[in-house]
């Protein structure tokens, strides 16, 4: 079990996916838009509709409609997390984590 979740609970904490999504957007802000040391700012909506267990699988992060505002912030209009089998096929067709207006700057 994950060491920092509930005792004997095999579910990976939801913050794992949130942290991964923010990290991906920060990397995108730096690499694509040239933002130096971007920091997490906000998200409008966070929706969890499934769980990640520790059994063998992979996850895929997806950023949609990423743009830079006039103030220099980088926003992903939508960000999704999908569960996949080890061969890359989706276990579930819909995203199990969805974020709206994820922002770094």
What can you tell me about this protein's structure?
- The chain has one domain (14-104).
- By secondary structure, the chain is of the alpha+beta class.
- It has one helix and five strands, in the order αβββββ.
- Helices cover 19% and strands 35% of the residues.
Keywords:
elongated; five-stranded antiparallel sheet; alpha+beta; 105 residues; 5 strands
Order of helices and strands: HEEEEE
Helix content: 10-25%
Low-confidence stretches: none
Shape: elongated
Structural class: alpha+beta
Strand portion, in percent? 35-45%
What's the mean pLDDT score?
90
The largest sheet is: 5 strands, antiparallel
Give the distance, in angstroms, between the N- and C-terminal Cα atoms.
Answer: 34 Å
Radius of gyration: 15 Å
How many domains make up the 3D coordinates?
Answer: 1
Number of helical elements: 1
Briefly characterize the structure.
With 105 residues, this protein is of the alpha+beta class. The protein has one helix at 14-33, and strands at 40-42, 45-48, 58-68, 74-84, 97-104.
Per-chain topology:
Elements: H1 14-33, E1 40-42, E2 45-48, E3 58-68, E4 74-84, E5 97-104
Antiparallel strand pairs: 1-5, 2-5, 3-4, 4-5
């Amino acid at each position: 079990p994950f060491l920092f979740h509930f005792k004997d609970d095999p579910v990976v904490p939801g913050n794992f996916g949130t942290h991964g999504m923010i990290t991906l957007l920060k990397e995108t802000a730096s690499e694509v838009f040239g933002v130096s040391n971007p920091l997490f700012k906000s998200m409008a909506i966070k929706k969890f509709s499934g769980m990640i267990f520790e059994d063998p699988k992979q996850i895929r992060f997806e950023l949609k409609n990423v743009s830079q505002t006039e103030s220099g912030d980088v926003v992903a209009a939508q960000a999704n997390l999908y569960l996949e089998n080890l061969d890359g096929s989706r276990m579930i067709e819909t995203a199990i984590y969805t974020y709206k207006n994820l922002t770094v700057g």
